[in-house]
Protein: Bifunctional protein FolD 4, chloroplastic-like
Organism: Nicotiana tabacum
Amino acid sequence: MASSPVTMMKMKVNDCSPPSTTAARLLPLFRRHQIHFRSSVGPLQNPCFPRTIITHASRSSFSSSSVITASMTTEASAKVIDGKKIAKDVRDEIAAEISLMKDSISVVPGLAVILVGDRKDSATYVRNKKKACEAVGIKSYEVCLREDSTEEEVLKYISGFNDDPMVHGILVQLPLPSHMNEQNILNAVRIEKDVDGFHPLNIGRLAMRGREPLFVPCTPKGCIELLHRYNVEIKGKRAVVVGRSNIVGMPAALLLQREDATVSIVHSRTKKPEEITRQADIIISAVGQPNMVRGSWIKPGAVIIDVGINPVEDATNPRGYRLVGDVCFEEASKVASAITPVPGGVGPMTIAMLLSNTLLSAKRTYNY
Amino acid sequence: MASSPVTMMKMKVNDCSPPSTTAARLLPLFRRHQIHFRSSVGPLQNPCFPRTIITHASRSSFSSSSVITASMTTEASAKVIDGKKIAKDVRDEIAAEISLMKDSISVVPGLAVILVGDRKDSATYVRNKKKACEAVGIKSYEVCLREDSTEEEVLKYISGFNDDPMVHGILVQLPLPSHMNEQNILNAVRIEKDVDGFHPLNIGRLAMRGREPLFVPCTPKGCIELLHRYNVEIKGKRAVVVGRSNIVGMPAALLLQREDATVSIVHSRTKKPEEITRQADIIISAVGQPNMVRGSWIKPGAVIIDVGINPVEDATNPRGYRLVGDVCFEEASKVASAITPVPGGVGPMTIAMLLSNTLLSAKRTYNY
């Protein structure tokens, strides 16, 4: 991106502003800051919590290891959680383990991916997964089926991979074409190879105390891994999960609860979600709404994990769009103690966790 | 119980007092009330929420159908949710359905109960279940095994019931003797006959949007049934579940979320749980701590479902003890808009829901 930091900053602040503040959008940055400092009310501030943006009090202590400081204006102070770096660390560790495993028991973990149809984004994901597998030494098996394939064909391939001892993980790329029953197809994957962790039996075990899931879904697992690697204490903390999807929000809430956080789940039916997020020491947001979580929604010192990857129009970008999270980064980074960026936060962790689950499966198969 | 209402009231208020207020315990009722009205602080009041006990503002509207008014002093105003009556209504509906089913397809639902060991409380539960089955027309099958039976023996009986077409529900009475692996035994029950709903596959489906559990665990199902039958709106409401057990707290939270409540789960690691419960429109408490939830923990107008059944010493009772809930009824009934008593609240609902699950299973087997 060619824009200067100041220009980019203005653009991003613009993104976070609600439609009613169009006039304010056009103010140059220094003017906006003047407003913040001179008044405790304004379009970006909540009268119930007027000092969230202008004060930096109550920051929680936070380990600085592996932390890259945000290159923001002087107002920004949240540490940026570097998902790209952590994902690389995880992949390096996996590669080392696989190499050792190969040497000692001559086993190479295998991951099968089934792609149906010709969605560009899905094809990109699958390509990235394949590359990531190769880089760490996981053998990848790929099946690409036409959009008009039948459910039976997909099930036939799943059945083949279920029985194939070289394959330790099976992943069906979602979404499937609308004529297929996603539930039937996902349920066909043997639970021992369900590296996505989406099987209800896995989810049930995740929910239950004293039970262990075979696999934890990759994205929420990646969120928790980021918290662990940045030494964010979870036990006894208030955590709010924004979104209750089967893939991220719900399992993230279950994982946080397993770690003894006190969890609240906010969703589309929640009235005044900001009153709840404002109590959180940790927020995980996974709703797919660009910049929905504003600075005023956040308790000073909170840690923010932003799972959203939302394309927004951007004429200055050669692709005509760029990616933003569910959280308004500019506002949040002035209030939070740590925050994941988008892109480069949770995103890279998902594939790293998929590799981790595949390795885990291979190790379990051979009691290694 | 022979005590006069006033004496009982005093006793119950005493129960709710923390140990440090032993002196206050001995005060006659009117004196305690004087203290409440004269001061906004005191052992039973929280300075952050000083008016919860002395004001009756903000009560939510609440359907009065099937509601019996609490026979308390003038201060009490919460409607008492009559679990005994609702459970009887449910049982009557089940009996009518079973009678119809028998007439039309000649099928009688069957419930098998396996009891291991000679715990008195378990024997009582099993006896009550048997009686309840008989009353609605469910055929009950009972196996009583010695405390020193092997896991294999229990599994053999489960296997037999799994294959028996007359049996539509199998229930293993918990707790099992310590030499048995509870998980192995519960997992052996065919999911189609798991009327307890404790199988991880059921719990997983309960957690997932777009999936349906075969059975919902009986006690949390009973809690939600009480809310439904008393026309308590759940959608969009703040709900707090106190406790996160596999049997009650966790599935209750999942059920509330399925009904579009915004749910928070409070547990033993939660700091200042009262700050969270005070935000709740609905509280379900299932921790097994007598009178833990005080009046000051409750938002005026909230609806309270008290799952706890805790024996406390009571020299005036011929048995030497009596049962109280997790919630201090006397304090709570002055703040809440509706509350379940203990006993006579959630308790009778559990068996009613077990019968309901057994009927459901039989209907499903025959596509009835």
